[in-house]
Write a structure and sequence with these properties.
Radius of gyration: 20 Å
Shape: globular
Largest sheet: 9 strands, mixed
Number of strands: 14
Structural class: alpha/beta
Oligomer: single chain
Strand order of the largest sheet: 13-12-11-10-6-9-8-7-14
């Protein structure tokens, strides 16, 4: 994700990159071509000459030339680095998940409020054109009441990163992956009244799957499902289907752009902005930081709520379908 963010920064004028951090000294040469993630494309060879290069994130946090810090570290490292950065007067963009537990997420948000600095979590779906199109369509109100919503995200288990299979460090595979879709449910529908979930976990062999039901009084069915489907070869995909009075809205990254299938039987493709989602996310963060605005499009307290809801969902899976009250 650090590689993906670096590529995005090249598209943002007026921003100066002054320092990079990695515990891999070869990557500090600028050769990131060996990196490949689910989305964001492969790494590139970048010019790091003239930059401050650190192997310890705390050294970068203390660098007086740094005004904002972009944290793309393992999840368990988010809180200490983010809090230290905020205490040293830096604005902070931190990748999702914000933390591994709700109490820690709240501590990060509280520190940003105390220091008066901009904090934002990289919940990139809030800036992803296909999901922005869904949000805008629902906000326009023309679709009427929503009756069913399904959000699905699947990928191969992440190889070569032992921390991700350690629940204490990452929160787990399902947690790390589906927090995107849980955050989108919070963004579109607010907090549910309760959750229930079923699934299976064997992270050491690359399987971590879940189907979660978010229970709302006003929407009969909201489902978040997906997870890891064995290592390496399984393709990444993300999708949604939302059924409302006025029609059904559907999208799949596997070749179906977002479209409205309306109640009259007609199909209408939704308008999409031609933007890089990560560049859009980062540009919004930098605009908020430079002007002192609160990131209302992606507020940290909502990102903390996503952490709490995702943990509740994983706990519900362990309870094998028992409905658990949701108090965020």
């Amino acid at each position: 994700m650090g590689s993906t963010h670096l590529k995005a920064y090249k598209r943002i004028p007026g921003m100066e990159l002054v320092a990079v951090v990695s515990n891999d000294e070869y990557q500090l040469t600028g050769d990131l071509s060996g990196i490949q993630g689910n989305i964001g494309g492969p790494g590139e060879k970048l010019d790091f000459s003239g930059l401050h290069k650190y192997t310890d994130a705390m050294e970068a946090v203390h660098d007086p030339e740094v005004e904002a810090v972009d944290i793309c570290l393992p999840t368990n490292m988010h809180a200490p680095v983010a809090i230290e950065a905020l205490r040293h007067g830096k604005h902070v963009l931190v990748e999702k998940p914000m933390a591994t537990d709700g109490e820690t997420a709240d501590r990060i948000a509280a520190e940003a409020e105390k220091q008066g600095k901009t904090l934002m979590v990289g919940q990139v779906l809030r800036f992803w054109p296909a999901y922005v199109a869904l949000r805008e369509l629902l906000q326009q109100g023309g679709l009427g009441a929503v009756h069913s919503a399904l959000f699905r995200r699947r990928c191969a288990a992440r190889a070569g990163q032992s921390w991700i299979t350690n629940r204490a460090l990452s929160g787990g595979g399902v947690y790390d992956l589906l927090i995107h879709d849980v955050d989108m449910c919070l963004h579109l529908f607010g907090a549910p009244e309760a959750v229930s979930a079923w699934g299976y976990e064997d992270m050491q062999h690359g399987i971590d799957v879940i189907t979660a039901q978010l229970h709302y009084s006003g929407i009969p069915s909201v489902t978040v499902t997906g997870g890891w489907h064995h290592p390496r070869a399984y393709p990444f995909s993300m999708e949604y289907t939302v059924v409302a009075d006025g029609g059904t809205v559907e999208f799949s990254s596997a070749g179906r752009p977002p479209a409205l299938y309306d109640k009259s039987g007609e199909k209408r493709d939704l308008p999409l902005t031609d933007v890089d989602s990560y560049a859009s996310e980062i540009r919004y963060f930098l605009d908020c930081a430079s002007t002192g605005r609160t990131p209302v499009l992606c507020p940290p307290r909502e990102s903390a709520a996503a952490v709490k809801l995702m943990n509740l969902i994983v706990n519900a899976r362990n309870r094998k379908g028992e409905k658990l009250a949701c108090e965020l």
